[in-house]
Design a protein that fits this description.
The structure holds three protein chains of three kinds.
Chain A: H1 3-6, H2 10-24, H3 29-35, H4 49-78, H5 87-97, H6 102-113, H7 117-141, H8 145-153, H9 158-191, H10 201-209, H11 213-242
Helix pairs in contact in A: 2-11, 4-7, 4-9, 5-7, 6-7, 7-9, 8-9, 9-11, 10-11
Chain B: E1 2-11, E2 14-24, E3 29-33, H1 40-47, E4 55-60, E5 63-64, H2 70-76, E6 77-81, H3 92-96, H4 98-102, H5 107-120, H6 137-149, E7 155-159, H7 167-184, E8 187-191, H8 195-201, E9 204-209, E10 212-217, H9 219-224, H10 229-234, H11 240-246, H12 250-253, E11 265-266, H13 271-281, E12 285-289, E13 295-299, H14 300-304
Parallel strand pairs in B: 3-8, 3-9, 6-7, 7-8, 11-12
Antiparallel strand pairs in B: 1-2, 1-4, 4-5, 9-10, 12-13
Helix pairs in contact in B: 5-6, 6-7
Chain C: H1 13-22, H2 35-50, E1 57-60, E2 68-70, H3 72-102, H4 109-144, E3 153-156, H5 158-175, H6 181-200, H7 208-215, H8 217-251, H9 256-268, H10 271-288, H11 290-293, H12 302-326, H13 330-338, H14 343-373, H15 386-395, H16 398-426
Antiparallel strand pairs in C: 1-2, 1-3
Helix pairs in contact in C: 2-3, 3-4, 4-5, 4-6, 7-16, 8-12, 8-14, 9-12, 10-12, 12-14, 13-14, 14-16, 15-16
Classes of the chains: A mainly alpha, B alpha/beta, C mainly alpha.
């Protein structure tokens, strides 16, 4: 895809808006003062918005990356001959864990790890694992038996079969799992500010606690834009994968 | 008796059924044949008002179908479709009992009727308690026929009823249907792609193309004198003559003044089978015996004579 | 423990999947021990043993100081250790014979079911024993510290949580292989009853979690009720609207795409942001129309929470209804119409019964999701079980956090199980 065509994709627009707003939010004081004239401090100032956004992205992105690698790895292992004994346990764990509310998982990480970014990261990784595992298992199992047989018949090694046949065929489903996992991660990271992590949720929660709707609005708009950008990016990826 | 009078139905710019007039006498089996998109299914659905006509009318036993409440009309007309459409969450017995229950029959009468119908379509009483997915395709289609016959409908409408089963099963379903029709005298309107099925079952063929009726005649008459080259091609083109043999039986061509040696043929044997036997045996004449016990001889010349 | 080596049977996902893999690694000889089947048992045992040095309970002189961990031997004594070891050994033994039997070429289905049931019962026994031992340890610690004025706090340690999780995982995994619904329900009910009996008999009253519950009992009941109210309110709004949307999308395929895209966008926005976003407009609306205020309508409280929950539920509800309607065979509907069923008869007799299992599965997903999201209601003054979590986080009171989090998890799991039981009850022909 050429650059000028890429520029027409919504992901670029929304993402650009997100970056622009993040960089200029602290200069929008007059706007928020006009919107909420009764507030003394119309713009969140405990931390800069670029810092909040970076921290948020690092938390959610890092956790999603770990969850993706570990989740795909676990699911691949459980579908190999050596690891197939683990498949039932993994499936049970995934289906139980998906009934656990993300906030509860986040809260449970605090007694174990204390406050700050660490419990948020742990909760994000643990909670993000499950959609990836479930989707990868489903994807690998949906690979047509005929394709596997053909690969075996043409003399693929097990690794080559996995890499060239099974994973590419399972990719669309795995991608939906990664998308779910990442979007949940961004949402849960927002709440991570209740356990002391610095994220775009911080202005929202401080605003709710201090009855400052301007803070709430600033955090909300940015975090919503971030989530939508990532969602659109995944949609873009899925589209290219489908071609 | 069903009378279609100047029936028309358009879908957008295309005319699915165009000025169709056809009378189907009581007890007749009328097969609507023709190429895909000829309007056969539409014509059938106009009869039970799954589709409403733009013009013309349908008379069922002299009553205008458009004046009857649509639900009451459909309960008087049995309906069988290719995909059967059995209700998967009901047992076979419950499926067969659909229309009697809609009509509010009492429980014992329904149970008796279901038992009768299972026997009529050649299923075991034990099948009544099974679910549709536990039956084979042919058995499901038998249930479909039983369900359509449950409330003793005046007319049975069948839309490619046996299109989705294997040839052997289709053959046995056709025999069963013919047998049932002979016993119940139900008028049947049948849509089919399968010319052999039409010839085997129908007393009247109605050939449609582009929504218009081109020819309605007995199978023999249509084969003997197709009204258009399209019909001739549809009926078999150069092999049409072989199909013609299907429409007559040995008895009609037998010379009962002579006799010959050998195992006699039944007089009801269709002529195509007579030819097949002659070819197999390498002879041009075969002995025949009819139901009354009369003996005769049929020759190849008798078979091909018109 | 492991049924992966049974021969392929149609209609069983796990088995079908195994069949796919079986030819990838044909077993040349029949061994008594299938290494792939034994591996998870060994791994679970290793994890259980690795947790042994960690604290089974933590004892602190008061709420402000962090606890000193006490190991199992110290906390439960020789009797408790022996009982736990015996149960664990029995469980491992049973699982190993199961793995051996599974590699046999002629596995007996009934025997496998029975073994799975026994494994579930043993795992449940371990859960109950763990709780009882922790309760007893807490009782002993509190009794020993009679001079502390009852301020001694006994919390549950890392080893307890590891073993509890393992036992529950084994329990849940074994339950999946017990097909008869009454047996499954009985096992779950027995576990719940045993735990309630322990609590009722006062065996765990000295655990800090139980104390926290006792202190907050009235508030807990209120909060749980409030939580259910939020979930119920969200459903009440989302089901009709989402249902209509799903039905519309099914009748007019293609037209629903735009609406679904908007709903998908809503789902993407982090939940707390959506909750907070609603405060402004709803406050403005309540200010503009004061009459609404009398109805409890406003920017803060249950109202925005219910709206936000409903907005979240709309997409899964609409998708679920659409999928459920699509699952109804078109031929059955056509046949019903052709036989003279009225619209109502068709809907009540054919469409609804055939769509019901899918609809209930959708409902289960939505309810579980809403129970989790309703936690956030506490942040905008709507109350609910989230109140304990956020209050606990604010006061650094781990037990309060635990109380809120565990209550929410239990509520979600209970909803999942109850609706699951309903689905199993309503589906007379699981083979379909």
């Amino acid at each position: 895809m050429r650059p000028w065509r890429l520029a027409r994709r919504p992901v670029v627009w929304v993402g650009g808006l997100f970056v622009l707003l993040t960089l200029t939010m602290d200069r929008l004081g007059p706007l928020f003062h006009w919107l909420f004239p009764r507030l003394d401090r119309p713009v969140y100032s405990r931390a800069g918005f670029p810092e909040l956004a970076l921290s948020h992205a690092a938390l959610a992105g890092g956790a999603s990356l770990v969850a993706a690698v570990a989740g795909i790895g676990a699911a691949v292992f459980a579908t190999r001959p050596a690891g197939r004994g683990f498949a039932p346990a993994l499936e049970t764990a995934a289906s139980i864990a998906q009934t656990f509310p993300p906030v509860a998982v986040l809260a449970l990480a605090v007694p174990a790890l204390g406050y700050g970014a660490a419990p948020t990261l742990l909760a994000l990784v643990l909670y993000g694992l499950m959609p990836v595992i479930a989707a990868t298992l489903a994807g690998l199992r949906a690979v047509p038996a005929g394709a596997i047989e053909a690969a075996e018949g043409s003399g693929f090694s097990p690794l080559a079969r996995l890499w060239q046949v099974e994973l590419p065929l399972a990719a669309p489903l795995i991608l939906t799992g990664l998308r779910t996992s990442t979007i949940i991660g961004i949402g849960t990271a927002t709440i991570g500010s209740t356990v002391g992590a610095l994220t775009l949720g911080s202005p929202i929660l401080d605003g709710l606690a201090g009855e400052n709707p301007a803070f709430v609005l600033q955090g909300t708009v940015l975090v919503a834009l971030l989530a939508i950008t990532v969602d659109l990016a995944f949609a873009e990826l899925a589209r290219r994968l489908a071609v | 008796m069903i009378e279609l009078e100047h029936l028309s139905r358009r879908f957008g710019a295309t005319s699915a059924v165009d000025d169709l007039s056809l009378t189907i006498p009581r007890g007749d089996i009328c097969a609507l044949i023709g190429p895909s998109g000829a309007g056969k299914s539409t014509a059938l659905r106009l009869i039970n008002r799954l589709i409403e006509p733009d013009g013309g009318r349908v008379l069922i036993g002299g009553e205008d179908a458009a004046r009857l409440p649509v639900v009451a009309l459909r309960r008087r007309l049995g309906y069988v479709i290719q995909s059967v459409g059995l209700f998967p969450h009901w047992t076979v017995a419950r499926n067969i009992a659909t229309v009697p229950r809609l009509l509010g029959w009492e429980r014992r009468r329904i149970a008796r009727r279901v038992e009768e119908l299972l026997a009529l379509v050649g299923l075991e009483p034990a099948h009544g308690g099974r679910y549709p997915h536990q039956l084979s395709g042919g058995q499901q289609q038998r249930v479909g026929v039983a369900r359509a016959l449950a409330a003793e409908p005046e007319v049975l409408l069948m839309d490619e009823p046996f299109g989705a089963v294997d040839p052997l099963t289709r053959r046995s379903l056709q025999d069963a249907l013919k047998d049932i029709q002979a016993r119940t005298g139900t008028t049947i309107v049948l849509v089919t792609h399968d010319i052999d099925e039409a010839l085997r079952l129908a007393t009247t063929l109605a050939f449609l193309t582009g929504g218009r009726l081109v020819q309605a005649a007995t199978p023999h008459a249509m084969l003997a004198a197709p009204a258009s080259p399209e019909i001739a091609a549809f009926l078999g083109g150069p092999r049409l003559g072989l199909r013609l043999l299907q429409t007559a039986t040995a008895g009609a061509r037998t010379d009962f003044s002579r006799t010959a040696a050998g195992e006699p043929l039944d007089a009801d044997t269709p002529l195509d089978e007579v030819v097949a036997r002659m070819v197999a045996a390498g002879v041009t004449a075969l002995p025949v015996r009819d139901r009354a016990g009369r003996a005769g001889v049929i020759t190849l010349a008798d078979v091909v004579a018109r | 423990m492991n049924a992966t080596a049974t021969p392929p049977r149609r209609g069983n996902r796990a088995d079908a999947a195994t069949a796919g893999r079986a030819h990838a690694a044909p077993r040349a000889d029949r061994r008594a021990w299938d290494p792939a089947g034994v591996a998870p048992i060994v791994a679970a045992a290793a994890l259980a043993l690795a947790a042994l040095p960690a604290g089974f309970v933590g004892v602190a002189p008061n709420r402000l100081v962090s606890g000193v961990p006490r190991g199992l031997w110290e906390a439960a004594g020789p009797g408790g250790c022996l009982a736990l070891a015996m149960l664990a050994a029995a469980l491992a033994g049973l699982a190993l014979t199961g793995a051996a039997a599974a590699s046999d070429t002629t596995p007996c289905r009934r025997q496998a079911t029975l073994r799975a049931g026994l494994i579930a019962a043993l795992a449940a026994g371990i859960v109950v024993l763990l709780v009882a031992l922790a309760g007893a340890a807490a009782h002993a610690a509190v009794a020993a510290d009679s001079g502390g004025g009852g301020r001694t706090r006994v919390s549950l340690g890392a080893a307890f949580w590891v073993w509890l999780s393992l036992a529950l995982l084994v329990f849940a995994g074994a339950l999946r292989r017990v097909p008869p619904l009454p047996a499954r329900a009985a096992l779950i009910a027995a576990l719940a009853a045993a735990l309630l009996l322990l609590a009722g008999a006062g065996a765990i009253t000295d655990l800090s979690l139980a104390r926290e519950f006792a202190v907050n009992r009235a508030g807990w009941v209120d909060a749980a009720g409030r939580h259910l109210l939020l979930v119920g309110g969200g459903l009440l709004v989302a089901l009709p609207i989402g249902g209509a949307l799903g039905g519309w999308a099914q009748v007019r395929p293609g037209r629903g795409t735009g609406a679904f895209a908007v709903l998908n966008l809503l789902q993407t926005i982090p939940s707390i942001a959506l909750f907070a976003l609603l405060i402004g407009p709803l406050t403005a609306l309540a200010n503009a129309v004061p009459a609404l205020r009398g109805l409890g309508f406003g920017g803060i409280g249950a109202f925005p929470a219910i709206i936000a929950l409903a907005l979240y539920a709309l997409l899964p509800v609409a998708r679920g209804v659409e999928a459920a309607l699509r699952a109804v065979p078109a031929a059955a509907v056509a046949a019903g119409r052709g036989m003279g069923m009225t619209r109502l008869q068709l809907l009540a007799g054919v469409v609804l019964p055939l769509a019901l299992p899918t609809l209930l599965r959708m409902l289960r997903v939505v309810v579980v999701q809403l129970v989790g999201l309703a936690v956030l209601g506490a942040l905008i003054g709507a109350g609910g079980l989230g109140g304990f979590i956020f209050r606990g986080l604010g006061q650094t009171a781990a037990d309060l956090v635990l109380l809120g989090a565990l209550s929410t998890i239990l509520l979600a799991v209970a909803a999942h199980l109850l609706i699951g039981a309903l689905i199993a009850l309503l589906d007379p022909e699981p083979a379909r």
